[in-house]
Design brief:
This protein has about 100 residues and is of the alpha+beta class. It is about 55% helix and about 15% strand. The chain contains five helices and three strands, in the order H-H-E-H-H-H-E-E. The chain has helices at about 5-15, 20-25, 35-45, 45-55, 65-80; strands at about 30, 80-90, 90-95. It has a three-stranded antiparallel beta sheet with strand order 1-3-2. A hairpin with a 2-residue loop joins strand 2 and strand 3. Helix 3 crosses helix 5 (about 65-80). The two termini are about 10 Å apart.
Length: about 100
């Protein structure tokens, strides 16, 4: 990964209030809806920049159907942190799948 993309993902992680070390630790980790929304909100705050730099075309990151797309286009693609969806107490829950790297 080139340095500008690495820096961009680091910035997005910081803006969303997430710990990069925690995300990359390899431990099975549930991602809360609030954390996913924080990433989408940070992405939306500089949407033109992120869409250009990441070569994506996510128009409305805060839409429920696009929140996972934001994660996949950033941390999923560049850090290998794929989200897996499971049902827990009849509610969808996302977990980081570290096996993608």
């Amino acid at each position: 990964m080139n340095d500008s993309i690495k820096s961009l993902c680091d910035d997005l992680c910081s803006e969303a209030g997430l710990s990069k070390d925690d995300l990359l630790s390899g431990a099975l980790r549930e991602i809360s809806r609030a954390e996913l929304l924080a990433v989408a909100q940070a992405y939306e705050s500089r949407i033109s920049y992120y869409n250009f730099e990441l070569q994506t075309h996510i128009r409305k990151p805060m839409l429920a159907s696009n929140v996972k797309k934001v994660w996949t286009a950033t941390f999923g693609k560049y850090w290998g942190l794929e989200l897996k969806k499971r049902i827990k107490h009849k509610q969808p829950v996302f977990f980081i799948n570290h096996g993608v790297r």
